[in-house]
Amino acid sequence: MKRQLGTICAVILLAAGSLGMAPPAVKDPDGCGKTDRGWLCMTSPAGGHKPGVYKAHYARHQGPEITVKLGYEIKMKRTGIIAESKWLGSKKTRNGYAAFSKRLPMGNDACIRAKMKHRGKFYISKYLDC
Predict the structure, then answer these.
(1) pTM (2 decimals)?
(2) Is the dihedral of CA 97, 102, 107, 109 positive or negative?
(3) Which residues pair with 113 in a beta bridge?
(4) Which residues have C-beta within 8 Å of that of residue 102, sequence separation ≥ 6?
(5) Is 112 in contact with 74 (CB distance < 8 Å)?
(6) Which whole number is the average pLDDT over 95-120?
(7) 64-79: per-residue pLDDT in tens?
(8) How many CB atoms lie within 10 A of CB 99?
(9) What pLDDT, in 10s, does the model give residues 37-56?
């Protein structure tokens, strides 16, 4: 009886210890969002609230090459209103990757995110530094 109790206690302690050692949940990178088969992101060396070049890009991790339409949305932080929403163009992925860049006059009150359309389905990323 003592042996069984000791074995049960050991199993419970091991199980509890392994729960504490589980890796933390992976957080989406800033400005990115998951799609069915990849990532849609908005990036900029300037950061999210300064004038500079912003890149909307899609990285596909499985499946054949596809044609995607990429663009961006700019939201005003104070009001939550979408101030600008434009398409940058359509492009076929090459090695699973497609991107468009544009210089934008971003202000401190603005947030930007990427948008994508493929076969009538729309995708959006998280806002960059918002």
Answers:
(1) 0.77
(2) negative
(3) 73
(4) 53, 54, 72, 88
(5) yes
(6) 95
(7) 999 999 999 999 999 9
(8) 18
(9) 999 999 998 777 788 999 99
At residue 47, the pLDDT reads 73
Q: Which two tokens mark 73? A: 């949305």
Question: Secondary structure of the chain: what % helix, strand, coil (to 5)?
Answer: 15, 50, 40
Give 26 or 6, the one with higher predicted confidence.
Answer: 26
Instruction: Report the chain's mean pLDDT, rounded to a whole number.
Output: 84
Tokens of 68: 């995607």
For residues 100, 102, 106 and 111, what is the CA-based torsion angle, rounded to 10 degrees?
A: -10
Strand pairing report for 97-104 and 67-76: unpaired
Look up residue 23 and give its DSSP letter: P
Cα separation, 41 vs 29, in Å, equals: 8
Site of tokens 């530094």: 129
Report the length, in residues, of the chain: 130
Structure token digits, residue 95? 């090695």
What is residue 64's DSSP assignment? S
